[in-house]
């Protein structure tokens, strides 16, 4: 048995749990350099084992049947990896902010969801290995991670804004969130980036259908997956462009609401995709 | 180690007296040189800040420490202050009290604003000047290394430094930074040109603000304040236009009624396109209608009362940390003395053992010379026997010294027993 094979989901999930516990401790225990170092150490260890796990499993699956990352299981774990990597980057951007308290539950939720559905829900090999499927899957994966990230920034903005309005800053103690300006900027950026990635995912999904059909251009708009994807994409375009053009909608609170609604749309769409068996080889 | 500190601080002397006895950094070396001319057997450090002037002197031998009056006369010779006046104004602490005092000072528990961080760098600076004046100062090194360590412990293990306690510092360094990521690209509008505006602008400048506009009913004062902080002025009649441009407003006018109410603020918010606005209303009575903060999403309006409540909470939070910080100082003082006593007794123990072994070796040699034909095995037994006798004789007194050095009776050294031991065994 080689060493990457020994790495299990428990390894990195446990590391992220430790990081989350350390993040939660800041609310009760004063800052300490030792604790921050341990936190960063566990975050790096978790991300490293997560990376090795994904690479190893992807290689094995590719050799056997097809792209392992195309399954719900791999897709969830890859999404969690993107968010964990974003967390590590954010730790260094905002060293003393408790971003992990908001972001790590999403990471752990995705890992939990992936483990729950299991790896048997594979995409069919024919669809996985087409270039459009690859682009479709990767773009949707990144877009989903960015929407989740935007959701986290939006939630943080609303909590922080509410606290500032109620004038209870010192009650927060160690729970110091990034500035409203920073949260708003990153929520806006995530809105734009998610529109781009989900747009690419949507268009490549259509292109995949077109190339796979011998009877001409047929887009099954009646399929709930297609129209919910179109609605989500449309919403993100509207929200991104609208917030750029119409200045009052750049009000931080409105941006936060836009990213929250985007996240709800995404959850709804993923739910529909799951129920109609889109990703498990069903139609379309 | 023997230690004496004399000095005065904001607790016992007013600013005018403190100014008379203070030393500029370039005067410290000269003073320490004159100190060492008079008292070469001891070590000295002078700590002089705007809130305190303190002279710390240390020596291994108690009779090497100058008396309080010696130090007062030396200080009087450097300043134009009569000896009698200094005698009545300066406090003095000795040994454990002096160490505890130094630890309290360095960890900012004795500062005017408890928890301020400037004092530790001032202590470090005084330490550097003392070691420049006399590089070989082992007692100063030990003492002040410990003081800086205690300051660090108090800073990291308590929250005493965390919360700011003045209104402008809370407003800018706590609140503004929670709203804005940076201040250098923000438009600051100052309404009124009073002292509070000036103090707040000092913090804003330090935080990087550079787009400052001052509007005041009296143009002269506005120009003066704007020039002081590199800003510009605006006519009072442009108030609403300026409000629509600003990101942060500091209002300190002496108006008897609010200068901006909800109705007059609505068009401002429309013109701003709902951009975030942070208003610091530091005027009494208030300049901004309180409902403005409630009715507009992106407006954060803080009045003087809100900020003062924040300051009081912070002050209480610091007070809550006080016992924890005091405990650290107390523990470190005890630890310092335990270590000092252990070092002092360690040297006496080593001397005593050396002396006893030397006697043992001499007697053993003499015995061996007198005895004929002792086998190697017998010789070894005799040596072991001598060794055991010496050890058994020394064990009770050495144990007593060790026990004595481990107790905390507030003495820098286990004086009585150690002195007795030195005299009984004629140790140096």
Structure description:
The complex is a heterodimer of chains A (284) and B (428). The longest helix of chain A is centred in the middle third of the chain and has 35 residues, at 131-165. Chain A is built from ten helices and no strands. Chain A has helices at residues 3-6, 9-25, 33-64, 72-93, 99-117, 125-128, 131-165, 180-211, 224-245, 252-276. Chain A is mainly alpha-helical and 284 residues long. Chain B folds into three domains: 2-161, 2-Layer Sandwich (Beta Polymerase, domain 2); 167-309, Rossmann fold, CATH 3.40.50.720; 342-424. Helices cover 59% and strands 12% of the residues of chain B. Chain B has 428 residues and is α/β, with parallel strands linked by helices. Chain B is built from 16 helices and ten strands. Chain B has helices spanning 15-21, 25-38, 68-78, 83-89, 95-106, 118-133, 138-157, 167-179, 195-206, 219-228, 239-245, 262-272, 291-295, 304-370, 376-406, 415-424; strands at 2-9, 43-48, 52-59, 91-94, 187-191, 211-215, 232-234, 248-251, 277-281, 299-303. In chain B, the strands form two sheets. A six-stranded parallel sheet of chain B has the order 7-6-5-8-9-10, sandwiched between helices. In chain B, helix 10 links the parallel strand 6 and strand 7. Classes of the chains: A mainly alpha (284), B alpha/beta (428). The A-B interface holds A 30-33, 160, 164-165, 167, 169-171, 176-182, 184-185, 247-248, 250-254 and B 156-159, 162-163, 174-175, 177-182, 273-276, 293, 297-298, 300, 302, 306, 309-310, 313-314, 317.
Annotation keywords:
heterodimer; A: 284 residues; mainly alpha; 2 domains; B: 428 residues; alpha/beta; Beta Polymerase, domain 2; Rossmann fold; 6-stranded parallel sheet; 4-stranded antiparallel sheet; 16 helices; 59% helix
């Amino acid at each position: 048995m080689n060493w990457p094979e020994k790495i299990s989901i428990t390894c990195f999930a446990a590391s992220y749990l430790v990081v989350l516990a350390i993040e939660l401790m800041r609310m009760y225990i004063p800052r300490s350099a030792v604790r921050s170092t341990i936190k960063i150490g566990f975050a790096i260890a978790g991300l490293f084992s997560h990376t090795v796990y994904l690479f190893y499993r992807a290689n094995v699956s590719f050799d056997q049947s097809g792209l392992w990352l195309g399954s719900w299981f791999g897709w969830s774990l890859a999404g969690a990896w993107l968010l964990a990597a974003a967390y590590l980057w954010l730790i260094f951007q905002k060293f003393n902010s408790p971003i992990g308290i908001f972001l790590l539950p999403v990471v752990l939720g995705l890992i939990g969801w992936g483990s729950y559905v299991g790896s048997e829900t594979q995409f069919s090999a024919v669809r996985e290995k087409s270039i459009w499927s690859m682009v479709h899957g990767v773009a949707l994966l990144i877009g989903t991670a960015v929407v989740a990230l935007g959701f986290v920034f939006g939630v943080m903005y609303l909590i922080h804004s509410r606290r500032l309005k109620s004038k209870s800053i010192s009650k927060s103690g160690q729970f110091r969130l990034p500035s409203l300006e920073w949260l708003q900027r990153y929520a806006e950026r995530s809105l734009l980036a998610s529109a781009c990635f989900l747009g690419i995912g949507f268009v490549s999904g259509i292109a995949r259908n077109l190339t796979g059909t011998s009877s001409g251009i047929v887009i099954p708009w009646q399929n709930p997956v297609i129209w919910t994807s179109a609605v989500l994409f449309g919403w993100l375009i509207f929200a991104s462009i609208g917030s750029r053009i119409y200045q009052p909608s750049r009000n931080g609170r409105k941006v936060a609401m836009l990213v929250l609604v985007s996240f709800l749309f995404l959850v709804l769409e993923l739910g529909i995709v799951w129920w109609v068996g889109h990703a498990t080889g069903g139609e379309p | 180690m023997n230690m004496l500190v004399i000095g005065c601080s904001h607790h016992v002397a007013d600013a005018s007296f403190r100014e008379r006895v203070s030393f500029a950094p370039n005067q410290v070396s000269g003073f320490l040189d004159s100190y060492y001319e008079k008292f070469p057997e001891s070590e000295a450090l002078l700590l002089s800040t705007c809130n305190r002037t303190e002279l710390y002197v240390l020596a291994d031998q108690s009779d090497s420490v100058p008396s309080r009056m010696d130090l007062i006369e030396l200080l009087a010779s450097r300043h134009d202050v009569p000896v009698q006046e200094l005698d009545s104004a300066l406090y003095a602490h000795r040994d454990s009290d002096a160490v505890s005092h130094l630890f309290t000072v360095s960890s900012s528990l004795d500062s005017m604003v408890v928890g301020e961080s400037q004092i530790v760098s001032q202590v470090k600076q005084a330490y550097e000047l003392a070691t420049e004046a006399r590089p070989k100062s082992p007692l100063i090194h030990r003492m002040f290394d410990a003081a800086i360590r205690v300051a660090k412990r108090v800073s990291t293990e308590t929250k005493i430094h965390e919360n700011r306690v003045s209104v402008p510092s809370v407003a800018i360094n706590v609140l503004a930074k929670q709203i804005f990521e940076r201040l250098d690209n923000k438009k600051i509008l100052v309404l009124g040109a009073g002292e509070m505006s000036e103090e707040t602008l000092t913090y804003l400048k330090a935080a990087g603000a550079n787009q400052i506009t001052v509007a005041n009913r009296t143009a002269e004062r506005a120009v003066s304040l704007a020039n002081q902080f590199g800003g510009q002025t605006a006519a009072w009649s442009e108030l609403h236009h300026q409000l629509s441009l600003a990101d942060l407003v500091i209002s300190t006018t002496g108006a008897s009624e609010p200068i901006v109410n909800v109705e007059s603020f609505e068009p401002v918010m429309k013109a701003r396109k709902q951009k975030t606005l942070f208003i610091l209303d530091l005027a009494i009575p208030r300049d901004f209608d309180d409902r403005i903060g409630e009715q507009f999403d992106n407006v954060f309006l803080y009045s003087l009362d809100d900020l003062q409540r924040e300051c009081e909470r912070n002050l209480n939070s610091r007070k809550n940390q006080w016992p924890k910080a005091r405990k650290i100082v107390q523990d470190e003082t005890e630890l310092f003395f335990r270590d000092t006593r252990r070092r002092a007794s360690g040297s006496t123990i080593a001397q005593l053992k050396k002396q006893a072994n030397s006697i043992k070796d001499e007697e053993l040699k003499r015995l061996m010379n007198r005895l004929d034909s002792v086998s190697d095995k017998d010789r070894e037994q005799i040596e072991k026997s001598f060794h055991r006798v010496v050890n058994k004789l020394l064990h009770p007194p050495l144990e007593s010294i060790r026990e004595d050095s481990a107790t905390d009776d507030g003495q820098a050294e286990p004086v009585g027993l150690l002195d007795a031991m030195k005299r009984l065994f004629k140790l140096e």
